[in-house]
Amino acid sequence: METYTLFILLLAATIRVGTPLLLAALGAMFSERAGVIDLGLEGKMLGAAFASAAVSAVAGSAWLGLGAGIATGVALSLLIGFACITLRGNQVVAGLAVTIMVVGLAPTLGLAWFNQGGQTPSLDAPGLRFVGLPWPWSNFAREHPFPGLLYAELVSGHNIIVYVAAVLVPLSAWVLYRTRFGLRLRAVGENPQAIDTAGISVNRLRYAAVVISGVLCGVAGTFLSTAASSGFQRDMTAGKGYLALAALIFGKWRPYPTLGACLLFAFADALAARLQGVALPLVGEIPVQFILALPYVLTVLLLAGFVGKANPPLAVGVPYSKEK
After folding, report:
1. What are phi and psi of 204, to 5 degrees?
2. Segments in the chain below pLDDT 70
3. What is the pLDDT of residue 278?
């Protein structure tokens, strides 16, 4: 029974860890389906994490912090879009440049504004962060391991952003494959010349895609600082933007396989946290450095085995110049 309980708690942790990965990966899916490489995921998430925590601490509202996080994600996405779509610059360089800028700017602003070593004030007071939402009878269900513990830990008790992320998966699939906007978005990532010939603005569609990515990355960053944590810390994204991009590639730019990849990476991350300080039979205590590297090692192994079989949109990374 103890093993069963630990496994359920591990799955619950997987859901929480996988939420920001899923949000960022879905945002990158829209961007890359439209032909714009989204290497700025890390920077947009980090910038949104700082903005949401800072505004929440000053204004006293997690919802205002969420708005600030989304606004920051959209602003950074528009900056990347201007460089890549309007100026037709190198998309890889633009995304990495924004990430490098935010990595240095966020803790610098935090130090100047709050004088706490680049961090924001702790969000411990009520209303400053998103907390879990217990569902009806969850406390009673927890007393009955099967199936009550499944309901109490896997369904109940998560914050609202987790539930929104779950809804966004089928919603994203519906938008991409069942709407005119999704059809045009996928077409512009495969053959922008055909879209242009039909009288549809390629740049407008690509800007719409990067804005969607900014919104979702803003929510992901907000989750990190005002839901999973109680404030902003330097480099708190810890490569999650790149893990999300890897999950998108592993999921072949489709919503449901991307969800599976995000949960797989999140499970490895949650397992790594559980294994710290634990002595395994015949092995002993695993060095903490190996445990921390486990999610990233898994990412490299999976991509090394499957990235060659994943076909990205044909026009991704290629600036489009309207023919005269």
Report:
1. -65, -40
2. 1, 276-286, 288, 305-309, 323-324
3. 63
Which tens digit of pLDDT belongs to each residue from 185-195?
Answer: 999 999 999 99
Which token pair is 252? 């072949």
Q: Where are the beta strands (DSSP E) in the chain?
A: 279-280, 284-285
Helices (H) and strands (E) in the chain, counts: 13, 2
Q: Which residues partner with 285 through β-bridges? A: 279
Q: Alpha-carbon distance 40 to 8, whole Å?
A: 34
Q: How far is CA 128 from the centre of its chain?
A: 21
Q: What is the pLDDT of residues 129-161, one digit of tens each?
A: 999 888 887 777 777 777 777 787 888 889 999
Q: 73: which residues sit within 8 A by CB, 6+ positions away?
A: 44, 45, 47, 48, 213, 214, 215, 216, 217, 218, 219, 221
Gap between the Cα atoms of 297 and 304, Å rounded: 11
With CA atoms as reference, report the closest residue to 149 among 159, 157, 141: 141
Q: How far is CA 173 from CA 14, 35, 145, 218, in A?
A: 22, 18, 34, 20
For residues 273 and 40, the answer to whether their CB atoms sit within 8 Å is: no
Q: Which residues fall within 8 angstroms of residue 183, CB to CB, at 6 or more apart?
A: none
**Secondary structure (3-state) at 185:** helix
Q: At a CB cut-off of 8 Å and minimum separation 6, what does 167 contact?
A: none
Domains observed in the chain: 2-309 (1.10.3470)
Q: State phi, psi for 318 to the nearest 5 degrees.
A: -105, 110
Q: Measured in whole angstroms, how far is the alpha carbon of residue 139 from the centre of its chain?
A: 30
**At 282, is the secondary structure helix, strand, or coil?**
coil
